[in-house]
Amino acid sequence: MYAVVDIETTGGNASYGKIIEIAVVVFDGNQVVDSFSSLVNPQRPIPPFITSLTGISNKLVAQAPIFEEIAERVQALTENKVFVAHNVNFDFSFVKKEFSLLGMDFNRKKLCTVRLARKLVPEAKRYNLGSICGFLGIEIKDRHRALGDAEATVQLLSALLQRDPVQETIRYSLNRNSKEMSLPPHISRTAYDSLPAQHGVYFFHDQRGEIIYVGKAINIKERVTQHFTGNTHSKKKGMFASHIHSVTYKLTGNELISLLLENEAIKKHYPRYNKTNKTFLLNFGIYRYIDQMGFVRLVTGKAGKHDKPISTFNTEAEAVLFLMEMVRQHGLCLRLCGLIKTTEKCHYEAKFGQHCPICQGDIKPQAYNERVEIALQNIAWLHTFLIKTAGRKEDEDGFVMVEKGRFLGYGFIQNDMEIHSIDDLKVHLQPCYDTQDSQSIIKSFLKKSVLVLQQPVQMYQLPFEKLSAGF
After folding, report:
1. Of 122-136, 219-233, 392-406, the least confident
2. Computed over its alpha carbons, how large is the radius of gyration of the chain?
3. What is the pLDDT of residue 176?
4. Which entry of 56, 133, 344, 417 is 20 to 30 Å from 453 by CA?
C-alpha cells in the first residue's frame, strides 16, 4: 500500500521552510482507496514568489489549520504504508520535521518516483513532474497545488508499476541496505556504485555540469553517502537533493594531496555550496631584474601560479623583513632593493651606521651585482624540499614539491623511478597556486606528522643525489 504525498511550502528546505498545503492519496497499486488534502497555516508570511507559483496567499491560509491540527490524520493515512513522492526526500523531510516539532517520530519506507522514472523510463530526457508526466501522457489538472500534483504522481506511479510487473526495481529501491532512496534523485545508482572507496577529492555537478561542491575524503564512496543519509533537515543536504546531477572524483592516495587539491579546486571553481577556502590569498615573492643603469634590483610582489620568484613568504611584511636582513648582511642598497622610494632620501646610515655604497657612488654595477649574487646564493635553495607520499596505486609514489619556499604542486611517479634532479620530477608535476592556504596545509601537515603519525614523513632536501636511493 502506498501513501502518495505532495506538499507546497514557504521555502526550499525543511530547516527554514514550512508546509502551506499537503495532500495524501492512498493507492493500493490498482486504485485510489482514500485521500486527504488541506491548506496549512505556516504561522509565518508566505514569500511573494511562492504565492505567484502556487496561488496560495497569506489570506488563503489565515483560517487554515496549523499542522498540529491535521497531524493525526496524516499519521493515520501514512502509517504502515510506503511514503511516495516525486523527489521523496524533499516532501518527507518537511513532514518529518513537522512531526518532530510536535515531539513525535515519523519513520516510513520511502519511494521516489524521480529515481524510479530514471530507471524505468530511461528514454525520457527530463524527469521533473511536469516533463515526465507529459512524456507519458499524464495530465496534471492543478499544477503546483498539492492535490493536483499528488494525483498526477499516483498516475505516474501506476505507469511505473506497469513497467516493473514483478516489482524487482521497486523491491530493490525499498531495500534499506541499497541506500537507493537516500541518494539525490538525479544521481544514478550506477554512478554511485562506481565511486571508489579510496583517498581522493570528489566534485558535485549541477545540471549544466558546473561544479557546485568540492570535498575530500579518505573513502570517497562513504563520504558521498554521508551527505545524503541521517538527518535530512540541514540546508546543505536539502540543496544537494535537488541540484546535484552527477559526481566525479580524482584519486590522490593520501591526505596531504587531497587537502591541497581540494583547496586548489575550491579556489578555481568557487563552488556555490562550499563555504570555506574560497578566499584567494597569494603569497609574496622576491623578484629580480636589471635596471637601465645595469644594477640588479630586488622587489617584492604577489607570486602567481607560473611566476618564478627567488623565494616566497606568507605576507609582504615577511618578504620585506627578509630583504632588510639581506641588505644588512651583504651591504646592499635600500633603494635598489625596493625598500625605499626612488625619490626618498637614503637612510642607510641611520639604520646600519655606515654610508650606502650605491648612493655615495662608491661601487659600480658589476661589483654591486656580485654582492647581490652572493646574497642570492645563500637563499637560492632556502626551504626547498620534497615530501614523499603514498601513491594512488601500489606501484606508485606521490610527491609534493616546495622550491625556495614556494609550493609548486604535486605529482605521481612510478616507485622504481630514479630521481637525480628536480627537473626529473617537474615533468610529472601538476602545477598549483602558491597560496597562503596551501602553505598553511603543508606546514600543518609537517607539524602534525611529527606528533601523531606512526611513520615519520619522508622529506628530502637538496642535494637531490640523496633522492635516488630513498625516493
Report:
1. 219-233
2. 32
3. 62
4. 417
pLDDT at 453 over 60: no
The pLDDT tens digits for 37-91 are 999 999 999 999 999 999 999 999 999 999 999 999 999 999 999 999 998 988 9
Q: Looking at residues 158-175, what average pLDDT do you find? A: 84
Q: Are residues 409 and 462 both part of a single domain?
A: yes
How far apart (Å, rounded) are the C-alpha atoms in residues 235 and 351?
Answer: 58
pTM: 0.58
CB 429 within 8 A of CB 409: yes
- Cα–Cα distance, 38 to 66 (Å, whole number): 10
- C-alpha span between 90 and 182 (Å, rounded): 11
**Boundaries of domain holding 288:** 284-379
Main-chain phi, psi angles of 6, to 5 degrees: -140, 145
Same domain, 407 and 367: no
pLDDT of residue 9: 95
Q: Which three cell numbers stand for residue 368?
A: 654591486
- Phi, psi (degrees; rounded to nearest 5) at 354: -155, 165
Q: Are strands 2-9 and 82-85 parallel, antiparallel or unpaired?
A: parallel
% of the chain exceeding 70 in pLDDT: 89
The verdict on residue 276 lying in a domain is no
Cis peptide before 47 (omega within 30 of 0): no
261, burial (CB in 10 Å: exposed 0-12, middle 13-18, buried 19+) = buried
Domain containing residue 64: CATH number: 3.30.420.10
Count up the domains in the chain and report the number.
4
Residue 266 corresponds to which cell in the numbers above?
A: 575550491
pLDDT in tens, 216-247: 999 999 898 888 765 444 445 555 667 888 99
CB 272 within 8 Å of CB 203:
no
Dist CA 240 CA 235 (whole Å): 9
Q: What is the mean pLDDT of residues 376-398?
A: 80
**CA-CA-CA-CA torsion sign (430, 436, 438, 443):** positive
